[in-house]
């Protein structure tokens, strides 16, 4: 290797919006001419030992989703963990492809593995090193980022040793919690027995309470609602401060930080003027999506005026868009339904508007657009988990459409008597047909949250579920 790696001069400094939030992205060309990336979340230089993933490029795993190795899933889950922690660095190291032997040689090694050799034997049979990776550029980038004391996301002890040899203090090594697959179990076993990689254990990376780990690195449609014991999300005049307590608010903010998009109905914006950002915990802000088929969001609302998070404004096809729109707002058009067309669309200066500031009743409007269509429109713009956050009608519509993977329903010890309804849907006439699903219970201060887990994929990812299929005796 020629010389010691000089201090990186970043040749690009830009933003990368991802399913796991917005990262700052820096680029560096090392002394051998190889280009590397550093993705930053939050301010890692101010943290004591931030989470760092030093990821070796793997085109087949990272870009093509190959299950021959675990690289793609490790990359995804590392980004999710860094995002969930609200702070950290992902170094994406080019030139590491095939443990440093390059893509074509790796594919030739795959051919030999197809004929029965393991990953170590295959490199050796090709007359190539088992592992030719160099970590000087990684260490130099960490030094340039002022992060020389880190918690390293890896199962490979050699990475820790190499970084330490290059002046980086690794205070903890955390294995990204990726499950073995039938397609890669032999490869992973060879790495563990032949290359000393860590086995799955209790010390696997988890900067989050167990409650949230099923959501990390996965894509779901989730909903959350906090309601009074008698089933209301706000008092009659629209006052919703506060139905549930501080712990439930933290929970909501954690869910936001794990979601790519947070979706609310227009009535929630009109009633509460929410920020929909992450403040009670550390974590990235999700993209905000406002469901507004009839163009009723007040133009001075926080989501339309404050650029603290990108906002998708889901408007009916015929609703006029104001001439001046803040640059953080993107209008997405919702396809018009038969009902809307019959009414001739609607306009944003509806004189019968029920803005709470004008003293009108706060009421959720039935969605004219099927929830599945809303998810399609959102999915085309932001991949990743959608959190349906309110209000009661919007969450209920997604629930009745059978589109929720999981629902967090918090019940607070307060009786409102008569107010804005929480969960309401066309139920069944008999209890035997009532909606039941496997569930977990969480106690948030004085509030109790039931997490209903509806989809098979969500159930498979969630430990500790109680069977919800039969009534509790
Ligand atoms: N030569 C060779 N390289 C492989 C093979 N499978 C994956 N790779 C490469 O191995 C590199 C990743 O190394 P791994 O040993 O899987 O994992 P690691 O990066 O050392 O450790 P972690 O930090 O836990 O991911 C990537 O660059 C892959 O392209 C293989 O069968 N042969
Ligand atoms: Zn790989």
TrEMBL record:
Annotated Zn(2+) binding sites: 58, 69, 71
Coiled-coil features, chain-numbered ranges: none
Bias type Basic and acidic residues, positions: 179-202, 346-361
Active site: 131 (proton acceptor), 133 (nucleophile)
Binding site for GTP: 53-57, 74, 97-99, 119, 154, 159
Alphabetical list of InterPro entries matching this protein: DHFR-like_dom_sf, GTP_cyclohydro_II, RibA, RibA-like_sf, RibDG_C
Domain Bacterial bifunctional deaminase-reductase C-terminal: 221-420
Enzyme class: hydrolase
Matches recorded under SUPFAM superfamilies: Dihydrofolate reductase-like (SSF53597), RibA-like (SSF142695)
Pathway annotation: Cofactor biosynthesis; riboflavin biosynthesis; 5-amino-6-(D-ribitylamino)uracil from GTP: step 1/4
Keywords from the named record: GTP-binding, Hydrolase, Metal-binding, Nucleotide-binding, Riboflavin biosynthesis, Zinc
Top-level taxon of the source organism: Bacteria
Pfam family, one: GTP_cyclohydro2
EC number: 3.5.4.25
Disulfide bond recorded as keyword: no
Domain GTP cyclohydrolase II: 13-174
Free-text function comment from the UniProt entry: Catalyzes the conversion of GTP to 2,5-diamino-6-ribosylamino-4(3H)-pyrimidinone 5'-phosphate (DARP), formate and pyrophosphate.
Protein name stated in the entry: GTP cyclohydrolase-2
Organism of this sequence: Brevibacterium daeguense
Organism taxonomic ancestry: Bacteria, Bacillati, Actinomycetota, Actinomycetes, Micrococcales
């Amino acid at each position: 290797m020629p010389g010691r790696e000089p201090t990186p001069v970043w040749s690009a400094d830009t933003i990368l919006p991802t399913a796991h939030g917005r990262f700052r992205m820096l680029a560096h060309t090392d002394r051998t001419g190889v280009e590397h990336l550093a993705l930053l979340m939050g301010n890692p230089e101010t943290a004591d030992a931030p989470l760092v993933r030093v990821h070796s490029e793997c085109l087949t795993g990272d870009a093509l989703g190959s299950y021959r190795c675990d690289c793609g899933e490790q990359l995804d889950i590392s980004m999710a963990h860094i995002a969930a922690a609200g702070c950290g660095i992902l170094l994406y190291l080019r030139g590491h492809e095939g443990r440093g032997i390059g893509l074509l040689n790796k594919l030739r090694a795959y051919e030999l593995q197809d004929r029965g050799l393991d990953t170590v034997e295959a490199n050796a049979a090709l007359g190539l090193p088992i592992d030719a990776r160099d970590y000087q550029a990684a260490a130099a980038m960490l030094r340039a980022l002022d992060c020389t004391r880190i918690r390293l996301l890896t199962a490979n002890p050699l990475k820790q040793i190499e970084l330490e040899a290059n002046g980086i203090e690794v205070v903890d090594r955390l294995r990204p919690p990726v499950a073995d697959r039938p397609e890669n179990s032999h490869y992973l076993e060879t790495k563990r027995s032949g290359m000393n990689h860590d086995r799955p254990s209790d010390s696997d990376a988890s900067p989050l309470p167990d409650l949230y780990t099923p959501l990390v690195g996965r894509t779901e449609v989730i909903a959350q609602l906090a309601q009074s014991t008698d089933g209301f999300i706000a008092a009659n005049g629209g006052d919703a401060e506060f139905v549930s307590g501080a712990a439930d608010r933290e929970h909501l903010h954690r869910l936001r930080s794990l979601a790519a998009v947070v979706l609310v109905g227009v009535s929630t914006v009109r009633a509460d003027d929410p920020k929909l950002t992450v403040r009670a915990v550390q974590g990235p802000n999700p993209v905000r999506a406002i469901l507004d088929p009839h163009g009723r969001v007040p133009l001075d609302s926080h989501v339309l005026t404050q650029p603290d998070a990108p906002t998708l404004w889901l408007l009916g096809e015929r609703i006029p868009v104001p001439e001046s729109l803040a640059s953080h707002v993107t209008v997405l058009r919702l396809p018009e339904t038969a009902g809307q067309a019959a009414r001739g669309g609607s306009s944003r200066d509806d004189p019968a508007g029920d803005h709470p500031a004008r003293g009108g009743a706060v009421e959720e409007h039935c969605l004219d657009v099927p929830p599945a269509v809303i998810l399609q429109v959102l999915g085309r713009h932001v991949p990743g988990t959608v959190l349906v956050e309110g209000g009661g009608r919007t969450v209920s519509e997604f629930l009745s459409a059978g589109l929720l993977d999981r629902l967090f329903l918090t019940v607070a010890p307060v009786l409102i008597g008569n107010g804005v309804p929480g969960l309401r849907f066309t139920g069944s006439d008999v209890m035997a047909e009532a909606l039941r699903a496997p569930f977990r219970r969480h106690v948030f201060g004085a509030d109790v949250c039931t997490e209903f887990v509806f989809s098979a994929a969500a159930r498979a990812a969630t430990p500790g579920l109680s069977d919800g299929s039969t009534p509790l005796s």
